Amino acid sequence: MERFTPYYKDMTRYITKSKVLSGLKCPKKLWLQTNNPELAIHSATSELNISKGIEIGNLVRRNYPDGILIEHVDRPDLAIAETKTLMQFIDAPIFEAAYLFEDSFIRADIMAPTEAGWRMIEVKSSGGVKEHFLNDCAIQTWVAQKTGVKIQNIVVAHVDTNFVYAGDGNYDGLLVEEDMTDTVSELLPDVPAWLANHRNILKNPVPKTRMRSHCKDCDFKEHCESEQTEYPLSILPNGRKVIAELQDAGFEDVRKIPVGLLTNDRHIKVWQSTCTNLPIISPILKTEFEKLPYPQFYLDFETINFAIPRWTGTRPHQQLPFQWSCHIDRQGMYLEHLEYLDTSVSSPMRAFAESLIEAVEIDGPIIVYGTFESTVLKTLIEFCPDLEIPIDNIIDRLANLLPWLQNHYYHPAMKGSWSIKAVLPTVAPHLDYLQLEDVKNGTLAQLAYLDIINPGTEQGIREHKIANLLKYCELDTKAMVEVVQFFKGSRDS
Q1: Which of 446, 316, 314, 321 is nearest to 55 (CA)?
Q2: What is the DSSP letter of 369?
Q3: In terms of C-beta distances under 8 Å and separation of at least 24 residues, what long-range contacts does 262-269 make, across chains too?
Q4: For the residues 391-401, what does the mean pLDDT come to?
Q5: What angle do CA 489, 372, 384 make, to 5 degrees?
Q6: How far apart are CA 235 and CA 254, in angstroms?
Q7: Which residues neighbour 99 within 8 Å (Cβ) at sequence distance 6 or greater?
Q8: For residue 274, how many C-alpha atoms fall within 13 Å in the half-sphere facing its CB?
Q9: Count of H helices and E strands in the chain?
Q10: pTM of the model
């Protein structure tokens, strides 16, 4: 017989650190998180970042072998009670220590005992201390102190991006602990106002906010976009200041911007095409693309970056290539496709480099989209110094499509983006990334790869992910072929 309704079943009654930070960054996000969480579409980026954070958190705990983990994920009441007991009777580090003051509930990553109190350690997977980490620590500290905890030091633990893994399982030196006590202490007087802001947001109707750059990876991005006009000011590329000024002047739709108000050439191009609902195509594209000699190699990479390095000689958050796709156009012949995907658990860099060098031969432009491949190739030389000459040859042959299109093409359907995924539907509507299964962007490609190299993944699932990853990378290079052929006026393949 149920004698009462446990308060832990209604987590919305608590003010949590993450929600306070959401409210400071975007009041609407906080309101939606609390009142309409079903509208959230969790991004692959969020999933990947969470997994990295968990991985780093587990590694940090190894530095405190006698630490005790407070579990009770769904029972904050039990977590609070156990934390209080351990702090009173056991002199050992506590992981996920739980504290509640009034309606504010927090869980600290690590609480380590000192001679005169406690050392609070917040663990982050990034390569440095970011500003919002300090707000995070301030909220954690304020709540813990209000419950009577004497905190001597406030520390942010993060990875050292200069750390090079020796491949021996030893990660000593990977993590850096920076004492932020003084800086965080200066923020503590602001915390009550942050909490009041949180309460004020939630007691009022959903706030009206403007979409900004920080909305890119928000779980509520699609919902907020659905409430906007078809061509919001946010489509003006790299126009944060201009967008804010236009919004302050009362404009919300690109089509409503008066003639002569925009001064940036790229903004004018977007505005002009959007207002006329017609694409802008410079004849320069046809001229330049017709100059490209044959054979033409269309190249794309997929990479993975680990917060905790797995392979000898690699660093945290280093972009490591594991897959390439290459379409070869030899003029008048069928379009050839070559590909490489490393599915082993070992370091893929040498096999990647050797197979790539063979595939792109020794002559002919290597067409890419952006500067990413160039950056990865330069990194590849670090792992394969004996292959420096052929890799340098590849770098010298790279031809970047992106600036050509940015300077000479725009279609209103691109909505301010020149990514290949935005351009492709405007020149080759028969190809569509949305038709791909599971792997539809670079982050999903990383998640698929992690499953592929995970020994615990079932063989059927592994093979399915391999197939999807190959299809995704193949489409990236086929898309570039379609783009060039479209502007040359010939789409025969």
Answers
A1: 316
A2: S
A3: 262/236, 264/236, 264/239, 266/237, 266/238, 266/406, 267/236, 267/237, 267/239, 267/242, 269/410
A4: 98
A5: 120
A6: 8
A7: 80, 83, 105, 106, 107, 108, 143, 144, 147, 149
A8: 24
A9: 18, 14
A10: 0.91
pLDDT score recorded for residue 492: 41
Beta bridge partners of 101: 104
Mapping DSSP to helix (H, G, I), strand (E, B) and coil, where does residue 300 land? strand
pLDDT of 165 reads 96
How is residue 365 written in tokens?
A: 């432009």
Say how far apart CA 422 and CA 433 lie, in whole Å: 10
How many other CB atoms are found less than 10 A from the CB of residue 80? 20
Residue type, 450: L
Residue 38 CB burial class (10 angstroms; 0-12, 13-18, ≥19):
exposed
Q: How many residues belong to the chain?
A: 493
Q: Which residues contact 305 (CB under 8 A, 6 or more apart)?
A: 317, 318, 319, 320, 446
pLDDT in tens, 155-177: 999 999 999 999 989 999 999 99
